[in-house]
Amino acid sequence: QVQLVESGGGLVQAGGSLRLSCAASRSIFSINAMGWYRQAPGKQRELVAVITSNGNSNYADSVKGRFTISRDNAKNTVYLQMNSLKSEDTAVYYCNAVPPSWNKGYWGQGTQVTVSS
């Protein structure tokens, strides 16, 4: 099991940017895919960005072209650069392995992102 600590969230105006960080308790080098998930009030948690160990990335249609995921295996950290933020991006953001079952059901505390219109 890998423990994860998300940070970097906050309150931002629509059109603004934030950079989220996810620090892992041990090496993520062996984890094939890491992702950022989000959960808005009253909605199910959804996967918004994935990055594989060789650097390939994929995005949900709702964030494509605005969000960029990256990983630094040497620092055991995954990042999410979020640009052109919209009110519908408001959610708690989590990082985890993809699929999350790889991490035995563990979830960190997440980081709140609130976008004001």
First-residue to last-residue Cα separation: 38 Å
Largest sheet: 6 strands, mixed
In angstroms, what is the radius of gyration? 13 Å
| Overall pLDDT | 96
β-strand percent reads: over 45%
The global form is globular
Helix-strand category = mainly beta
Model description:
This protein has strands spanning 4-7, 10-13, 18-24, 33-39, 46-52, 57-59, 67-72, 77-82, 91-97, 111-116. It is 0% helix and 49% strand. The chain is mainly β.
Strand and helix layout:
Layout: E1 4-7, E2 10-13, E3 18-24, E4 33-39, E5 46-52, E6 57-59, E7 67-72, E8 77-82, E9 91-97, E10 111-116
Parallel strand pairs: 2-10
Antiparallel strand pairs: 1-3, 3-8, 4-5, 4-9, 5-6, 7-8, 9-10
List keywords for this structure.
mainly beta; single chain; globular; four-stranded antiparallel sheet; 117 residues; six-stranded mixed sheet
